[in-house]
Structure formats: structure tokens, C-alpha cells
Specification:
It is built from eleven helices and four strands; from the N terminus they run ββββααααααααααα. The protein is mainly alpha-helical. The strands form two sheets. The protein has a two-stranded antiparallel sheet. A two-stranded antiparallel sheet has the order 3-4.
Length: 318
């Protein structure tokens, strides 16, 4: 059936990694998932479903915030709230799983987490800023092409290898992103889409590096999912804080003081996103960064369809 009774309590779900002849980690037949031994195929489906559902919900809330909240243009603040919530929840979960005991020593080098946090901070913030210049659906599709640089960095840096089908899927994703970009240009021929495209493509490179840093921390250094998320998001929040104060500062404080519901929406959105990101990081740890990014690429397709259905005002289907 794929499930068995929990064999013993662990601080974090783990899997025994086996490396193939090509040097790539191969997922074990069973994975320790939430204290249960789960067959790897079933575990992949469960983690994928959870990732798509929770991140999809957070994206709906994000677009609703950007569309429904009049005068909301605080992209650095949104990123800061997201990273702080991620760090706080991860810390609480880590302490809860450890039973209040002293946490285990850090597994991955701090320099990797600093690099990962820097790219995460920029990727998160600039990705949101891109929505100022392109509609949500187009921005989402452009960022979906992250699969291509992720594969490139994975091959060149981590020495992973992929099949011809993987490369075909990557090529089709680039074609999809290009088509949406042309549609955006037709819709608003005199607009500022070029800035949206520049920011989105810059995010592709940042996201590719960040994903592969996470892959290295989790699979090559044996870091736990919680360790990776705690260090990356806590350090990233510190970086974003400087930009938030410099660019939005007092104006953001005034806006949220006058619109307390806005900060509540940001918190709810961040909590749902944390749940999806935690499950996504589990996918990276057990099945690799390219498999995880492929799942989130499918999630982005669902997000785009829902965006057209629920927020058609700035993207008529023609």
C-alpha cells in the first residue's frame, strides 16, 4: 500500500540517498515522510499535490492583494513580510520537533546560506516588482522558464545529467514564455513591459542559482529542510530590510496604519506560501531540484489559468 506504521520519531523526515553511475542521487524506494515510511512514488505525488495547492492559493492571494488593494505598491515590504514569516514559522517548527532541546549543529557551510539568502532576497523582491510592469499571468509564465537556467546550473556546477525529454520540456517552456511576452506587447504596445521582462529574466538567473544552492545544501551536505529554510529566509529578511527602509519606509508604515487589513492579508498569504515552500523544499531534498522545479512549473500553469479566469481585467483572452 506504500505506507507502514511509524517506526520511530525523528527531528526531520529523511531519506537514504543512493548515487547512480552518473553521480546523481537516486531516490530510495521508501522515504521517511512525517514519521511514516512512504513508497517514493506516492511520496512524490503527495508532496507535489501539497506544493501545487498551497503555493497556488498563496499566488491567488498575492494577485488579489496587488489588484484589490487600492494604492498598494509596496513590493519590498511584501517580500520582507514573507521572509520574516518564513523564518519565524520555521524556527517554531524546528524548536517543536526538537522538543525544546538544543538544535543539531548546522550541516551546510554558512557561506552557502549567505549566498542562497542573497539570491533569495533579490529573486523574491524583484519578482514582485516585475508585476508593476506586466500582468500577473505574463510575469508568472516568464518566471516559469526558470527550469532552463536551473538545468544549466545543475549540469555545469553540480554535475547532474538529464534526459532528452527534460531538454525538450525546457525548450517548450521557453517558447511558451516568448508567446506570452508577445501577447503582452500586443495588449499594451506603448507600455513599460520591457522593465517587466528585464526584471523577470533577471529573476530567472537568480532563481536558478538559489535553487541549486539549496540542492547542494540539502543533498550534498545533508542539511535538513528546516535548517535550509531558516538560514536562507532569516538572512534574506535582513538583506531586504535595508531596501524596504530605503525605498518604501515611512510611506509603507502610513499605508498599513491606515489599512490594517492589508497586513493581515500579507500574513495569511505568507503562511500559505510557507506551507507550499516547505513541501517544495522536501521535494528538492528527496527528488532533486529539477524534479521540484518541474512540479512548480506545472503549478504556474494552473496559476495562469486561474489568473485569466478570476482577474480578466488586464489580460483579455484574445
Amino acid at each position: 500500500l506504500g505506507y507502514a506504521l511509524p517506526h520511530h520519531k525523528r527531528a526531520m523526515p529523511t531519506a537514504v540517498q543512493i548515487h547512480g553511475k552518473d553521480g546523481n542521487p537516486v531516490a530510495s524506494a521508501y522515504i521517511d515522510l512525517f514519521g511514516y515510511q512512504v513508497e517514493s512514488t506516492i511520496a512524490f505525488k503527495l508532496l507535489s499535490l501539497g506544493t501545487v495547492t498551497m503555493i497556488g492559493l498563496s499566488c491567488y492571494l498575492e494577485e488579489w492583494i496587488l489588484k484589490a488593494l487600492v494604492g498598494f505598491e509596496f513590493y519590498w515590504t511584501m517580500s520582507f513580510v514573507e521572509l520574516v514569516v518564513f523564518a519565524m514559522i520555521t524556527y517554531a517548527v524546528t524548536r517543536g520537533w526538537s522538543g525544546g532541546n538544543k538544535p543539531e549543529p548546522r550541516a551546510a557551510p554558512l557561506v552557502l546560506y549567505v549566498a542562497g539568502a542573497s539570491t533569495m532576497a533579490l529573486y523574491t523582491s524583484l519578482g514582485k516588482l516585475a508585476y508593476k510592469y506586466v500582468n500577473y499571468a505574463t510575469g508568472t509564465v516568464l518566471k516559469s522558464a526558470k527550469l532552463v537556467p536551473v538545468m544549466a546550473v545543475s549540469v555545469l556546477w553540480l554535475r547532474r545529467s538529464y534526459s532528452a525529454y527534460d531538454y525538450l520540456a525546457a525548450g517548450l517552456m521557453v517558447a511558451s514564455a516568448a508567446t506570452f511576452g508577445l501577447g503582452e506587447r500586443e495588449l499594451e504596445p506603448g507600455g513599460n513591459q520591457v522593465w517587466g521582462f528585464i526584471l523577470s529574466f533577471l529573476c530567472l538567473g537568480l532563481g536558478a542559482v538559489q535553487c541549486n544552492i539549496a540542492d547542494k545544501c540539502l543533498r550534498d551536505h545533508g542539511a535538513t529542510v528546516n535548517e535550509n529554510m531558516l538560514y536562507t529566509n532569516a538572512l534574506g529578511a535582513v538583506i531586504v530590510l535595508g531596501a524596504m527602509v530605503a525605498y518604501e519606509g515611512a510611506e509603507a508604515c502610513t499605508y498599513f496604519a491606515e489599512n490594517p487589513a492589508a497586513i493581515a492579508l500579507l500574513l495569511v498569504r505568507s503562511v500559505t506560501f510557507w506551507m507550499g515552500a516547505w513541501l517544495y523544499t522536501m521535494l528538492v531534498k528527496h527528488f532533486g531540484v529539477v524534479a521540484a522545479v518541474a512540479v512548480t512549473t506545472a503549478r504556474k500553469a494552473l496559476t495562469v489559468m486561474l489568473s485569466f479566469a478570476l482577474f480578466p481585467g488586464d489580460k483579455p483572452l484574445t
